[in-house]
Amino acid sequence: FDALVEWTSQRRQPPVVEDLLGSNCLTIFAAEGSSGKSSAAYEIPEAITTGGKFAGQFQAQVGDVVFIQEDESPSDASVKWRRMGFNPNGTRLHMMWSFTPMMLPELKAKIQATKAKLVVMDSLISIAGGTISPKDAEFALLLYRLNKLASELGVAILLIHHLTKDSNRKEVSKEAIFGSAFIYAATADCWGYWRCDDEGNTQFKLRVLKARSNTVDLGTTYVFNGNEEDHRLSFKGFGDRVVSLDELKTKRDQVAALLHRDGSQKWSGACVSDFFGWNGSRYAENVLSKLYEQRCGVD
């Protein structure tokens, strides 16, 4: 058991995109059609291949990306790229325009050959829906296999999926994911994404519906400003908080420094909140949990 714990610790990797996309796991990105999810899915690889920031805030690791595009033809995709001003590092982005569930060995070889940090698959219905009903349990077998592949190769896999049709939908919950409950169960992380214009301004929200990787707290909601001209996103803030990502990172560093200051003292969430003058103990408890999980040199 000790050897197993040591082995898993050595394999632990930082998020591919800080405070957003975890490594070594499968993440479902669920949204309605025409919600801008494909544009967002292009912006994430752009940040990774260039080592930039997604939506101007979320720092990405630099690395290669394999992008499987089944929902758009090369000509349709190029139109979107021109409108977005899509500008990845072209030597690090590897496009695949055809994929079936039988091609997992080819995908594995592609990941190994490119040493990719991320695989984007657009979309689940196009890739697997032609042969299996999304309402059948076996539809989730592909997801289990992809999750296993992500863990084995240490790569993040972002799988774009659709929601059930609902013209009155105000937000996205796990029940809105199209298909059987096994789809939600088979993934490590799950995002819900929807458009929510505010007083004529184009806005989008991304909510964490499942967070097995512990990259982001469950229920976290990010708000983005959208641009009708180039379809790009810029980070606006949180749906439930008024702090920025930089402020969150600073607070985590402050707590880590506090724990290092005196290793003999035990700190609860309430004690940490009182020390820094924060309201309530829930946020401090989450910070302590993350520091413990990441083992940031804290015993």
Could you provide a short overview of the structure?
The chain is an alpha/beta fold and 299 residues long. 36% of the residues lie in helices and 20% in strands. It has helices at 2-11, 37-50, 74-84, 104-114, 124-128, 141-153, 181-186, 245-261, 269-276, 282-294, and strands at residues 26-31, 53-54, 58-59, 65-69, 93-96, 118-122, 156-162, 189-195, 203-211, 221-226, 233-238.
Low-confidence regions: none
Order of helices and strands: HEHEEEHEHEHHEHEEEEHHH
Strand order of the largest sheet: 5-4-6-7-1-8-9-10-11
Broad structural category: alpha/beta
How far is the N terminus from the C terminus?
20 Å
The main sheet comes to: 9 strands, mixed
Q: Total number of β-strand segments?
A: 11
Strand content: 15-25%
User: How many separate helices?
Assistant: 10
Classify the helix fraction into a percent range: 25-40%
The residue-averaged pLDDT reads 88
**Assembly context of the chains:** single chain
Rounded Rg: 20 Å
Give the overall silhouette: globular
Short key terms for the protein model shown above:
two-stranded antiparallel ribbon, 299 residues, alpha/beta, single chain
Your description of this structure?
- The protein is built from 10 helices and 11 strands.
- By secondary structure, the chain is α/β, with parallel strands linked by helices.
- A 9-stranded mixed β-sheet has the order 5-4-6-7-1-8-9-10-11, with helices on both faces. It has a two-stranded antiparallel ribbon with strand order 2-3.
- Helix 4 runs parallel beside helix 6, helix 8 (245-261) crosses helix 10 and helix 9 packs across helix 10.
